[in-house]
Each structure stands twice: as C-alpha cells, then as structure tokens.
Amino acid sequence: MDQHELAEEYDDALVALLELIWGEGFLSPGGPDAVRKIVKGLELSDKLVVDIGSGLGGPGITLAKEYGARVIGLEVEQGLVQRAVDHIESADLSNRISCRHYEPGPLPLPDNAADFVFGKDSWIHIEDKKAFFDEVFRILKPGGILTAGDWMCSDKPYGQDMAYFFELEGLTYHMDTLENYGQILRECGFIDIVLEDIAQTYQVQAQQEYTAMRGPLENQMREILGEKAKAHFIENWRALTVVLDNGELRPSRFRAHKPE
What we know:
alpha/beta, disordered N terminus
C-alpha cells in the first residue's frame, strides 16, 4: 500500500495521546526541539519550505515562527489537514503557512518550486521511496536542500518484538534502513548526503515518556482516552522501548542537496 492509499489512521484518541506526549501540533517525538535539530544551520528566512507529511501543523508553525520561513504543508489525511489549519490560525500564522490535502500521484507543486523540503517522521508510511524522492528532487530548486527525520529499521529481518510493536501501533509502516535511504537519494541525483542515526538519543527519551505515562500522565490519559485505550497505549510504549533497545527501530536524520 502506498502512502497515498492510506485510510484515515490517526483517529481522535491517537491524536489526543500523541499531542499529550509530544506537544500540541505534533504527531512524532521531540516537538519544536526536534524541528530545530532537523534544520540546524540552515537559513530559512523568507524561503519556501515544503513540509511533506505536515500532520497537525506543529513543525510548520515552528519553521514560520522561529525561522521566518514561508511554509506549504502537504498531508494525505484530510482529518489532519483541518486540525493543522486550526492550529495555524490559533498561532496567527495563516499568512505564512498553508496546509493542503493532496491525492495520490505527483506532488502538487511545479518543478523547481521549493527552496527546502522538510519532513519529520512521516515518510515511514511511504512504500515507494524512489518515486517519492524523485518527486522531492523535481520540486526543489537547483541548489535546494532536503532535510528530514524519519524512523528507520535495522538491516536484519523483523523479529517478534517488531511484529508486536506494529500490531499495537495499528499504522501502515514501510521502513527501510538509513543506508538504503542514502543509496536512493544518490540514485535520484542528490549530492552532499549526510546520514545520522539518532536511535540512542530517542532510546532515552522514549523510556522517559513510558515512565511518565505510568506515573504523572496516567490520570490525564485515562480522562482523555478511557481505561482500555490508556492501557493499550502504555503497552504500546513499552513495546516501543523494546524495539529501540534491541536496535530494530532506528530513528535517524538526513540531509541532501540538489545540484546547482
């Protein structure tokens, strides 16, 4: 299944849980600080940043508010688009950020349109990575930069722990290794490719999140989700810590340039 064929997978309960853990507007770890690390050293002021897999709009809000970027968010789940628009309006940034739902097929932007393409832990859902990065290459201006974070896997077959984690997640994942991402980027024509495994950092953070879910956040989770869903997500996080500790899940960051 391609990313574009996904049903609406982020329901109200999952969104509420993820925002509780990771902050308003965020569906993946680290909140604004993770965004800052992905774009570290880049000059984004008045540049067009295309955020693919823009989710609830939190990353785009950080890029616009803290870096002065102009942001186009692209998202395949219609329900998330409206939530993102609400967050953007609340932040009074509608003049700098637009968020669009897009359908299967090419990215809805012309050739050489973007100064930067940004992604935060959402391309894990894309099955055909080569076709996707060909499109990213197409919409970037010559000299443009791709900068992103994503969840990768190891080079070993999935074990029972990973299968159990996927079952609890209930989301469609198409993982690849960081090394394969680099190879695909080279095949697409990118240069100056930098790959960074950050699994060890998130190991610590995920354990802290799991501890908080079993302690200070447990009552809030119960109030928001109910007892059954609360218990499910706590077990989901326990399984997450296992696949991080055993090296099957390997969050990473990467950056690449389109030649001038």
